[in-house]
Amino acid sequence: MSYCLTSACPKPFNSDSFKFCQACGSRLLLGDRYRALQPIGTGQASRTFLGIDSQRIVNNRCIIKAFSARRGLEAFRVEAERLEQVRQHSQFPDLLAYFEREEKIYLVQEFVDGVSLRQALQTQGAFTEEHIRQVLVEALPLLKFLHDRQIIHRDLKPSNLMRRRSDDVLMLVDIGSAKYATETNLNKTGTLVGSAEYAPLEQLMGRAIFASDLYSLGVTCVHLLTGLPPFELFNFTDGRWLWRSVSGPVSPALEAILNRLVERDVRQRYGSVDEVWTDLKRYLGDRAPSLIPILISPHCETSQPEPIAPTWMHDRELTHEGGINAMTLTPDGRLLATGGNDARICLWDLASGLCVYTLEGHELAISALAISADGRTLASSSWDQTLRLWDLRSATPRQQLQATQREVTALAIAPDPQSPEQSMLISAGRDAVLNLWNIATGKAIVQFKDHATAIEAIALSPHQPFLASGDAEGRVNIWHLGTRERLRTLSKHQASVNAIAILADREAIATGSADTTVRLRQLNTGGGLQVLKGHLLPIADLAFAPNLPCVASGSYDGSVRVWSLETGDCIQTLQRHQHPIVAIAFTTQNALISTSRDGTIHVWRCSF
């Protein structure tokens, strides 16, 4: 059974084959992977579903949370990027993906098989002092982990504290309401998020601070101690809590801690986890544990290769007379294609360093090149606003596609997921449109028109039907080529995105910008990993090494930098070009090719 994801259409369907809601026509699936199976909660600004991950056979359940984008999509993208830090801790559910659709946001989170403290209250009755002491000892380190990373949870309550069934460890779930705190936005009124019964006055006014989470923890504890809803424990006439008169035995020390946690006046409340922990240690005495054992999450633990120290030595220089505007490699790394200002395409044998073929047909400078995965088809675009396809086996033209309305800036060739036997050409350009073409017929398939400004770069995921596109405003969109939909937009660069590369093995995406930075992020969530800084001028191109934990960046400053994916450090700076870099690429043997506007091609060999 599937459920419609839109808030206005809760109808279920008994067939798993449906991809669209029969009542309102909206898509039931997120991409082609996640499907909502059962609604399990509705809040003021969100709906929560139990979902299924169709690409996993074991442990395929997930939680899908749908939000209205009241705070604005860009604000959420920035916060989603920073929430990547939460994945470092095993007591928070993994954020698997996020999607955007019609001004709504969908977060897909790990399903935690366990029992919430709310469920425990209902089945076991009110908590004892010993139980509350244990809740504080386990929950405070989780809040400190968040607060140390400038993250406010904003929805701490008994149903969001859950004991994992496999090991009885306390989990803090539902990170979808979390907010990244800065000095600027702490003083700015935002959106009301959270559950009113557990939220302090400042949060109800849209001004949540770190102490707001401590208030929610205190209210959670008095609820568990008494078994009564928080609104029944508070006298709104004189503004006093009445929980002590209806709870079981509680020591004066714990009573004092809880009373200060639930202070309505933020000036009288605990201001930080450390302040609470100081009193808790005094209360516990010798039983007090150390604060915050950092637990690395299993989903972040990957087998890393042994430390390596690769270096790249200059091997040879080639020259494409007239200057280079575009470059691409065949998948086997044997043939290099360069496109120049002279409207010619040169095909180079990298083993010999000789130009073996020259392709002519365009009238103006070449603007972009792409080669198919089988190495048989070359696509080219030109400032003459034409697209051409070439047979690389015979080095002859195949066909010319209809002229484009504006200059094409980027090309890619991919299998069509809707027709696996067919290939398609993807072109992007100054008209802010992504065009998908059927290579066999030369006919347009579909257009993606979500960008508002010129598209400057695109990249394909090697193993999944994902396409990334970056524009002159700094936006990066992720598209699903099978479902023909925009899945998500990543938080913006401060200037044009000029380069994109995707590393499928790590589900990582690198974006390079005219703001001179390279940003490494999670492809499925947009979560921020690293920001690489060092270039003096805009980034021109990016490339991941095929079997080394490295990414290379080429810049208008004429340099190529190689960065470690593990540390974010610059391993090496390659400087032979005297003019801006146009494009870079790695061969299958980790040799690095760099090209420049002055027509020079430099080949760098990797050694250890």
Structure description:
- The chain is mainly β and 608 residues long.
- Helix content is 14%, strand content 39%.
- The protein has 8 helices and 43 strands.
- Strands 3-4-5-6-8-7 form a 6-stranded antiparallel sheet, with no helix packed on it. A 4-stranded antiparallel sheet has the order 16-43-42-41, with no helix packed on it.
- A hairpin with a 2-residue loop joins strand 7 (95-101) and strand 8 (104-110).
- Helix 6 crosses helix 7 (252-261).
- The radius of gyration is 28 Å and the shape is elongated.
- The two termini are 55 Å apart.
- Mean pLDDT is 87; it is low at 183-192.
List the quaternary state of the chains.
single chain
Q: Strand share of the residues?
A: 35-45%
Our count of helices gives 8
Strand tally is 43
| Share of residues in helices | 10-25%
* Average pLDDT taken over every residue: 87
The shape is: elongated
- In angstroms, what is the radius of gyration? 28 Å
Assign the structural class, choosing from mainly alpha, mainly beta, alpha/beta, alpha+beta, or little secondary structure.
mainly beta
Q: Can you list the strand order of the major beta sheet?
A: 3-4-5-6-8-7
Largest sheet: 6 strands, antiparallel
Point out poorly predicted stretches: 183-192
Termini, distance in Å? 55 Å
Concise overview:
The protein is mainly beta. It contains eight helices and 43 strands.
Write the layout of secondary structure elements.
Blueprint: E1 2-3, E2 12-13, E3 29-30, E4 34-42, E5 46-53, E6 61-68, H1 73-82, E7 95-101, E8 104-110, E9 114-116, H2 117-124, H3 129-148, E10 151-152, E11 161-164, E12 170-172, E13 179-180, H4 183-186, H5 201-204, H6 210-226, E14 234-235, E15 240-241, H7 252-261, H8 273-284, E16 311-319, E17 324-329, E18 335-340, E19 345-349, E20 354-359, E21 366-371, E22 377-382, E23 387-391, E24 396-401, E25 408-416, E26 419-429, E27 434-438, E28 444-448, E29 455-460, E30 466-471, E31 476-480, E32 485-490, E33 497-503, E34 508-513, E35 518-522, E36 528-532, E37 539-544, E38 550-555, E39 560-564, E40 570-574, E41 581-586, E42 592-596, E43 600-607
Antiparallel strand pairs: 1-2, 3-4, 4-5, 5-6, 6-8, 7-8, 9-11, 10-13, 11-12, 14-15, 16-43, 17-18, 18-19, 19-20, 21-22, 22-23, 23-24, 25-26, 26-27, 27-28, 29-30, 30-31, 31-32, 33-34, 34-35, 35-36, 37-38, 38-39, 39-40, 41-42, 42-43
Helix pairs in contact: 3-6, 3-8, 6-7, 7-8
